Amino acid sequence: MSRVNARLRFIEPQLASPVDQPPKGNYWIHELKRDGYRCQVLLEQGSARVFTGNGHDCSERYSSIVDAASNLRCKTAILDGEAVVQDGSGTSDLDSLQSAKRWRAHEIILYAFDLLHLDGIDLRRETLFERRAKLRWLIGVNAESRIQFSEEFDGDGDTLLKTCTGHKLESIVSKHSMSRYQSGRSKTWLKTKCFTESTFVVVGTDHDPDTGAPRALLARNDSAGLIYAGAAFIALGGDERAAFFAELERLQTFWTAFKSSRGVDVKWCDPKLTVEVKHLAGSKFLRHATVRGFAR
Fold it and tell me: In whole angstroms, what is the distance from residue 174 CA to residue 48 CA?
């Protein structure tokens, strides 16, 4: 713990390393990863500034957070958190956040999960447990505030992961409670993504602009008809892969189904082939998606 007298500056944030399963043990805490933008709030001399995770000043677009931070009971502070907009069920909505930054800043909430500085003291060498205790005290309990404390889950990571997957949420973050704050990618913060499987209709194929790998273009059935869902890499092998492309060749058409694809060499087909797709939960459009097989 060291005292800082100079003007506060943006600190490179700590980042979580991806893992397949959350860690086990009593020293790990587990939090919901909200679908928003990483933010760092610097408060001093009664005014606040908000920075993106890359260190760009975005205070004008986060005026609700600026106002809330100015009311915190301290002279100086640096808060680390995620800016989100929530829908009616309390789920964070990234698409709504995009528009809220321009037109509805009052809807944006910062879920703060770490405290790097408080009243002239650099807290990064303190444990996460100690930092979060100070952060909880600093924020207090006010349901109307645009800054809220990001609560940890009372239980093990596996249970939280299953719950989040069931509610179509993106991922969880596990943090070692005795760790110091370490800028950059670390092994004391770990992120586990929530994957799920869903059935989609194939409407065409293209090639990924970056890798050149073939992808299936997919849509989901809706009351209004087919809605474009995004692209998925084709994780099929052997006879199943050959049968997949043979069927697409048979169903090929020259009408353009959707204009959403940004790939190259787009080929459209009649929407008669359904497939099972593994994808990241909690997104309007498919992310980290792969075709796993034909729908049964």
Answer: 29
Q: Provide φ and ψ at 264, rounded to 5°.
A: -120, 160
Which stretches of 16-126 are DSSP H helices? 63-70, 94-103
Q: Is the CA virtual torsion 121, 126, 129, 130 positive or negative?
A: negative
Phi, psi at 189, each rounded to 5°: -120, 125
Q: Is 33 a catalytic residue?
A: yes
Residue 176 near residue 28, CB atoms below 8 Å: yes
Catalytic residue among 33, 101, 175, 193: 33
- CATH of residue 91: 3.30.470.30
pLDDT in tens, 87-132: 766 666 666 666 566 666 678 899 999 999 999 999 999 999 999 9
In this prediction the pTM is: 0.77
Domain count across the chain = 2
Report the CATH number at residue 232.
Answer: 2.40.50.140
Its domain, for residue 276, covers 195-294
Phi, psi of 134 (to 5 degrees): -65, -40
Which strands, in side-by-side order, build the sheet including 28-33?
14-19, 184-193, 171-176, 28-33
Comparing 41-45, 105-109, 188-192, 230-234, which segment has the lowest mean pLDDT? 105-109
Single out the residue of 137, 141, 25 nearest to residue 77, CA to CA: 137
Q: Rounded distance, CA 234 to CA 200, Å? A: 13
Asked if the structure places residue 278 within a domain, the reply is yes
Look at residue 122 and tell me if it is in a domain: yes
Give me the sign of the Cα torsion angle 134, 138, 142, 148: negative
Q: Are 139 and 237 in a shared domain?
A: no
Tell which of 193, 225, 241 closes a domain.
193
Task: Clarify whether residues 155 and 53 are in a common domain.
Answer: yes
